[in-house]
Batch of 3 targets.
Target 1
Amino acid sequence: EDPSLERHFKGHRDAVTSVDFSLNKKQLATGSMDSCLMIWSMKPQMRAYRFVGHKDAVMCVQFSPSGHLVASGSRDKTVRLWIPSLKGESTVFKAHTATVRSVHFSSDGQSLVTASDDKTVKVWTVHRQKFLFSLSQHINWVRCARFSPDGRLIVSASDDKTVKLWDKTSRECIHSFCEHGGFVNHVDFHPSGTCIGAAGTDSTVKVWDVRMNRLLQHYQGNSVVNSLSFHPSGNYLVTASNDSTLKILDLLEGRLLYTVHGHQGPATCVAFSRDGDFFASGGSDEQVMVWKTNFDAADDGDVVKPQKSGSSVDGTHGIGSEMDCGIHHKKTKTQDSGRNHEQQEEETSLANTLEHIMAQLDVLTQTVSILEQRLTLTEDKLKECLENQQKIIQNKTN
């Protein structure tokens, strides 16, 4: 069945620029031109947090893999790290000299990559909040930068009409994809890590294989594409366009599956939840919408739905047979039956424990830096208290 509207969040006072789900789907982070970052609860009737700190439009937001931190980038040239539940406290990263358009955590949560109108891509350590290095071969604004799932590569998209692939270790540009006819608004890695999808002002979505550096699929729309997100199964892609629609592309079939209407005015951002059950979208209409995916309900993800009559195909054409970038490897439920369950459970609980430790490290790092800021304040207070106590004791002895 069609994707259905699950939640509708109103609270931003200007265009929404960015959306991202936390790992457990309990929270949704959004950024807006109104200079605020908001964290919405997926539970009905739960209040939203509005985080104030950026001095200008918030261009991008992302939860850390553990979900215990949120990074944001802004037109005020800074990157901030927030704890998504406390008093909205944050620490600031400064190194860019212009608008920061994109923030992205590596999958281990240790590094952050940012992209900016200063034409650079920068990499930071999360825990020490230290700037590591810049990648600077773009000759115009950089709109978006992402780590590959294994963290070895970085991909970046720019108004110089190129998508560049970088090796994180050598810090060199391995390849430039120059097939876009306009600015490249957004780029991301396929979950397999073997290909990338890019969206542009030339109304196209292009999918490239990063091993052979060749174009695999090309979808021609009729409106500027602002954002895209791969479904975790790797079989689908959702896009947000200036014609106010979200489109779901079937990558195995190489065609348009659904067109989702909801926004009034350009749809600016879209993202799947980390398990793919939902996707969220934001628009210049200040609205944030959460949609239930529905198309994976039938089985394990190898759904091939008939094209809905009446929904436009926008002249989509894909190279379905060539989509060999790890997409066809379907996970079956029986894959692990050979391994004994105890071992599996042990591994799962170990992974969970590690995840938990990482999460706590995240919070500790943040807390320490906030505590440092407060320490001087506390010392002053303490001095005051001691002086008062002295007076009280003196008064009693008198």
Target 2
Amino acid sequence: MVEAWYMDESQEDQRTPHRLQPNCPVSLEQLRTLGVTYRKLDADNYETDPCLKEIRRAENYSWMDIITIHKDKLPNYEEKIKTFYEEHLHLDDEIRYILDGSGYFDVRDKDDKWIRISMEKGDMITLPAGIYHRFTLDENNYVKAMRLFVGEPVWTPYNRPADDFPARKQYMKFLAEVA
């Protein structure tokens, strides 16, 4: 099961857990109030998994690819890791399914505090369009993930501040309605 917590303010190695002391866990329900959804799937059988097939059909995820983030597998590895960890948003939902390895998605809560979400094999997460977030590997330095999109993929991250985009305004409206 996925685990999430509020992060400390340390600027040390981004790959470490960065838990507050004492730990301040975040529940799946709290993540849902931010528009973040989570599913657990069978990553060993992702090619034939009927649950993944149904999710793709129901959510219109018509496009997918697989990315391996490891220094021996990803061109421009160091540059990509830095880019993934810059706080940004997207104009579309970000859907990631961890097929192997592990890493962290960090998202901002309604009070602009960081929540770290630990992702491992079998975890699927959907981050809503307009949410500020970032990604980093953990200390294992390896993840293989499926990226899913509705329609053609759009890879563009908009680094903070990006508050004038309609996706951000719509997301802020969603947060206000949930509150």
Target 3
Amino acid sequence: LSAQSTGARVRTYQSVSRPFNSSIDGRKFPVLVKSRAASTLAPRRVRLVFPICAKVGKGDAPPNFTLKNQDGRNVSLSQFKGKPVVVYFYPADETPGCTKEACAFRDSYEKFKKAGAEVVGISADDPNSHKAFAKKYRLPFTLLSDDGNKVRKDWGVPSDLFGTLPGRQTYVLDKKGVVQLVYNNQFQPEKHIDETLKVLSSI
């Protein structure tokens, strides 16, 4: 039976590809709304799902890595054994959210030192970008260059916005290199510092 013979109303939505301005780090990401016919008698709901789980979880010993820091020197995760270490993955240097997060770690750096912990930031930016970023904002901790996001993938750090934006995720490892916290919050970067310090005070 056709829509005309049954008297059913049918609305046709045209395919539209348009950018929207994300609230995440001030970037724009394309959204594609696909063409479809939908009866007004049977509306559909669309639910957006953002992954929040990761391969490396609490109680795990994450895979080791060796990456170059902002001075071009190799740094391995294994060299931090014997002290707590905070490893935070962030999307990119100089973006608003990432700058806010890095400066929050900087402002609380004495608290991390008092807890005996090292702070390590990781993104896909090259060492030169990290060096300029660290110098501009007087960052006293290590920034590592994860070329091709290999370590991010090995650790299973989830992405956001349908995989278009590298996720923001923080790990706290104890003295034995075992994860005691996995914290993911793309929208409130400062909360990574608060949650991290809470865990460090208890291990």
